[in-house]
Amino acid sequence: MQLNDVDIKDTYAEAFGIKVSRLLITAATKKLALVAATEATGYGTSVIGCPAEAGVDGYVSPLETPDGRPGYTIMICNSSKKELDHELLERIGMGILTAPTTAVFNALEDTEEVLKAGFKLKFFGDGYEKEVEVGGRTVHSIPIMSGDFLVEAEFGIKEGVAGGNFFILADSQMNALIAAEAAVDAIHEVPGTITPFPGGIVASGSKVGCNEYNFLNASTNEKMCVSLKDEVVESEVRKDVSGIYEIVIDGIDEESVREAMKQGIKAACTIPGIKEISAGNYGGSLGAYKIDLQDLL
Question: Which of 10, 15, 108, 177 lies 20 to 30 Å from 143 when distance is taken between CA atoms?
């Protein structure tokens, strides 16, 4: 199958379940809201080595926020409910409360489970905290040096999907990079999804386990390394490919991840020099979700 003369490989992306929380951060300006969102989602590329997978979901206009200020939604993901609770508390406390003029609201309503990170954080107020109503929501108002920090008491969590992915194979590293950036821009238009890697782009696609060192649970995907295509016997890199980037997507549900993959692939295939779109899977050993590339299109 081809899309814009780009080969869409007959394969699937293997994704896995993960617990997801979604927050809305508002601030006096769009810039300050994005600064806080960026800080709160740092060191969150992959649960292979990070304490969570996290990223900025999208911009929310002042017309749609509880306090009438610009904001950004973010997502924080972890396989453990306990660990996710810990991450919410630390990321809100150290990445958002410390940022100028911010407030934090729950952006995942009507869930069966909640985490009380905001309730726990209120004790930073040392007895001076109080409850106020903002946009029909009851929030904790915590006095801080620059004014008051507002945080909703509870944040919804649900079972989401992590690890949706596709590979962009191009005739050069630069064309692969341009296509990857176009894909990330398109994915950012799909609500309820994040691309947690730096700039949304994975430069170091990995595989489960390691061939040479038994102390590693993940290692480089040598079959997809362009510099090894003439060295690895079972290399999956075509002779006409000299640049590969991977896009990884987490979402609030499978439908959101599928739509993000679809839009990202379509955008990538508009860039000259793209030869093939593929995906990573591990024969079903990693996760329960199999997203067929050709079915998406």
Answer: 108
